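Q: Predict the bound structure with glutamic acid.
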Amino acid sequence: MTASPASAATAGAGRFAPSPTGDLHVGNLRTAVLAWLFARSSGRGFLLRVEDLDPERSRTEAAQLRDLTAVGLSWDAPPVRQSERTELYLAAIDQLAGAGRVYECFCTRSEIADAPRAPHAPPGAYPGTCRNLTEEERARRRRDRPAALRLRADVEQYTVKDLLHGAFTGPVDDMVLLRNDGVPPYNLAVVIDDAAQGIDQVVRGGDLLTSAPRQAYLASLLGLPAVEYAHVPLVLNGAGRRLAKRDGAITLTALAGIGMDSDDVRNLILASLNLPAGTLENALAAFSPALLPRGSWVFDSPG
Ligand code: GLU
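A: Predicted complex:
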C-alpha cells in the first residue's frame, strides 16, 4: 500500500525516528525494517522523522536517509525535522501551563542527584525540589539561573500496551518540558510529533520501553490519542553487549568496505527475523508479529 500523507492520517501510520548523530548501524536498520513491516502489515502508512533537537550533534541526516533507502525502505511523505517544529512544542507547553501543569525548576544536575528522595521513588526520578517554591523564591532563583520547565505530574506510574511486552507499567515523574537553554526535550517532542503526524503505532528499540509510560501519560494530559507500541529487541555484539562503534564493521559504509553490499545487509537482517531473502515487499508477505523472534539478535561483525 502506498498511502498519501492524508490517508496516513486517517488509516494511521507507523514511523522510524532516528537521531542524526551518527551513521545508522545494522541494529538501527533492523529496527527501521521492523517498523516498516509492522506498519505495512497492518495497513498503515509509514513516515520518517529526523530527531535533530540537538543541533550540535545532528550532522548525519543525509547519510541516514541514504542508508535507509539503500536497504529498500521508502516513506510516504517528506521527512519531518524536529528542529523546525519548536512552535508546536511551545504551544503544547502553553496548553499544559494553562491547566496548571507546569512549574519552573532551577535545580542543577548535581542538586537533583544529591536531593533526598522518598524511599519508594524510582532511581533518577525528579525529587520535586522546585515543585512548591513561593513566588518570592522563584523570583530570587531566576536571578541566578534560567529556569527549566517541568511537568506537575499527578501519577507516579503509568501503563502502556506493547505488542511484544503486553501491559507495561513504568515510572512517571515531573519530567522536563523545556530545558533551561530553551530546547524542548525528546520526551515532549516525540509525543507532539507522533500525534501531529497521525502516527498511531510506535515501533522502536527496546531501550525506550521504560520511556513509553511517561510519554503516554503526557499524551493523555494533552488530550492526544494513545499509540500502540512494539519495543523490539536490541542487537548485541558477540560479547552480548549493545552494538557500538568499536564493534568493527556495523554500518553500511563499513560493511561495504568488507564486501557486503546493501542487499547482503538487508538479507542478513531478514534472516535474523526468520524472513525470506529478497525485497522488503517479499518479506512483508511472510511477516507476522506473532512469528517474530523474541530474543536479541547477536551481530558479530565479520570486519
Ligand atoms: N530518536 C530516538 C533514537 O534514535 C528514537 C525515538 C523514538 O523512536 O521514539 O534513539
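A: The pocket of glutamic acid is lined by residues 17-19, 51, 190, 204, 208 (CB under 6 Å).
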